[in-house]
Structures are given as C-alpha cells and as structure tokens.
Amino acid sequence: MDILTPVALRGQYLLFDGLSYSLPANKIVPVELTLRTLRLIAPYNLDEEHFIKNFGSTLYIWKLVRNTMTEVIENKKKEILDSFNESEDTILSSFFKTNTDDYMTPDSDNYVIENPPILDNDKLVRNYQVKLRVYIDYIMGGPEDLRQTYDETFILSYIGEFISVVYSG
User: Fold this and answer.
1) Sign of CA dihedral 38, 43, 49, 50
2) Measured between alpha carbons, how far is 160 from 111 in angstroms, rounded to an integer?
3) Measured at the alpha carbon of residue 35, what is the angle toward residues 31 and 37, in degrees to the nearest 5?
4) 158 in Cβ contact with 68 (< 8 Å)
5) Helix/strand/coil (H/E/C) assignment for every residue in 57-92
6) Which end of the chain has fewer CB atoms < 10 Å from its terminal CB, N or C?
7) Is 146 left (phi over 0), alpha (psi -120 to 50) or beta?
8) How confident is the model at residue 128 (pLDDT cuts 50, 70, 90)?
9) pTM score > 0.70 for this model?
C-alpha cells in the first residue's frame, strides 16, 4: 500500500494522515487509520478560520512620467536663434552642447531612491539643472561685415515628474 497516493472513498479523494496498529502473531489486527480530504466539503473562508493576516505590505516605487529637459533646451535654442534672425546678423554655423555631469538628473537622484512612496498614485515633482553651451559663428550685419563668435553657457532648470507604482519585483 502506497501511503503517498490518494485513495477514493465514496467519491472523495483522501490522503493518509496517520496509521497505527500492533503486531500480534497469527491474529487479525485492527488498524486505526486517519485520512485527510484534498478539498473542502463545505464553503469555508480559510482566511477567517485560520486568522491569517495580510503578510507584508505593498511596495511602491517612483516612475518618471515627465522630463522637461529636452523641451527646456529646445526652447532656449529657439530663443537664441530667433534673436539672431531678428537682427541683421547671418549665422554661419551653430553648435549646442548639453552637459549634466556636474548636476543631479532624474536617473541619479538619490532622493527618489531613498524616499519611496507610501501610497498608490502619489506624485512627486523634482527640480533639476542642465548646462547648455552655445557656440555660434556669425557675420555681424552692417557696413563692415565682421565675423564674430557667440560663446555662452547657460544653466537651465527643468522638472521631473514622478508617480508611484506598485513594485512588481
């Protein structure tokens, strides 16, 4: 008899839970057998019956949903180029370089990592900075037509917006 295999008794599948007997010589021996059902017979709520509480809590993390860095940089570029177009100057070449190495970004912000949200759909708005270096070679309008170089560095502020989402691990 394999005690790990379920047995069927009146259509109900059961597993062996306990078995006790004695070994007398040449006699029929009564056996005490305990079986356990594999399914619930009546509708039970096991959480209430066993007083099982929710284990652990729901974990949330911040998810970046809006980063305005590109928008702010493009607006500044447009502002600078428009100011040249309004004057009589002729742009020969322009070069724009961004740098975030010395500044905190949404990807490197320790506050976002060290302060997780505690509620679903929480919102967090953080301010960041980016350096924009502008090089423009142009010919200054007027009677002399002088070649000039515009070289400026701007520190621009932008925002990162985060919402809380459930951490799925």
Assistant:
1) positive
2) 12
3) 165
4) yes
5) CCCEEEEEEEECHHHHHHHHHHHHHHHHHHCCCEEE
6) C
7) beta
8) very high
9) no
